[in-house]
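Re: that chain you flagged

S.,

Sorry for the slow reply, it's been a week of failed gels. I finally had a moment to sit down with the sequence you sent. For the record, here it is as I used it:
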Amino acid sequence: MSNDNGEHPSNTAKDPPAHLTVTLEPGSMSSSNQKTSAPRLPVLNPPGPNTNYLDWEMVVEAYFRHVKVKHVLDTSDIKLRKATWSDDNDLICATILQIIDPANNRYVRPFRTDGRGMWIALAEAHQDTSTGGKVYWIRKLLIARMEGDNIDSHIDTMAKYHERLNALVTPEKPLTPDDVHTAALLGSIPKDWVACVSNLMNQEGIKTATIVSALKNESIRRQSQGDIISVSSTATKPPAKSGNPNNPPKKKFCTMCNLDTHDLNSCHNTRRLIEEHKANRKKRYESKDQPAPSGKSSKPPARAGRTSTATLGASSHSNHNDSDTDYSGSEVEVTAGNAVASLSVSFNPKASGDANLDSGCSMSMTPHLHSIDNPKLDRTPVHLADHSVVESTHKGMSRLPIKGNTSVKTLVVPALHEPLLSIASLCDEDLTVVFTNNSSDIYAASKTQV
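Prediction finished late last night. Pasting the structure tokens below so you have them in one place:
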């Protein structure tokens, strides 16, 4: 809208005044036979939301009509031109160039000597007569909501929207229900769908049926694109290996490292611990075979001769301060204690190798499944001495290497290197372990004499 506040811009070179006094005198051949008065004409703002084209066009057209030069804007037919057409055309060109913002020069530059061309170019730059232009102002009218309590301001705003829309409606281009339908349709869909009809919005006279057809085509394209992506992703998957669906392949998981990149059989940490354990046992056995120096014992006093009988039960944990520990010791929910002695006979008739007596184990364990009677699947967590956690695979009964048919509950833990015989489990069976300098023996508690 035109600015009538009378304020003067600080820089007239950059900010032209809202109104400009123009003094023009028609030529001798002009249709106006008297000197033109000096009118105050509004300056046309750049195109955009703040354009004042409607007011500017009304004032300037009235001025051209007053000075009898408007016939230049009405027709382009050379046969209908008046004798004063050339002078009147120059007057219009000079006037327009003085009363427009410099931002409008790019629209009129191709029509430097054509007053009618300048007039039409400015109208097209400020008035969007395309389908999108009509839809824009229809939506502004439909979705506008009053803010605050100032009803007068809201009425003025709605009137401006109506004025802008009404300027786009002509007898040749009337406003139809089809335009309202298009505006409502485009306002109801997501923004990413509007892009597919943006080219149609830049054209004039587009029907709603054309908009609907474009939206349906976009829907088909998106569905087909999704199918192509789905087929491509399916084709890249390797074919499933044939096998029994009821027995899927087990996933690799190392209970020592808590990783699923390998299993316990290929674990380097497990291999290193086993090798270190074997080396320590070998050194211990070699030191036992060497003769002790005169006057000195090669074994700690607490184990060499001070205690010859181990009473089973709570007192089995009395040797916590012993430094000679068995690294393969393990536990169920409790840290493994010391392996106080090694049996000189096998763990039971089916097993191979020696079994360690462990005062810290709450249950006997063995890595050999074949040494267990009536094994059942079991997954009991077992905490090793190095603070790692492994799981048992089976649970059953193992026979003790003594006379009779005495058995103890035993877990099968493949991660162990050698069997562990829990002193606590022997206590439950009313047994006693007698230690000597070279070995240890298991007896029934009722028959033991120390």
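What I noticed first: The chain is about 35% helix and 15% strand.

Talk soon,
D.
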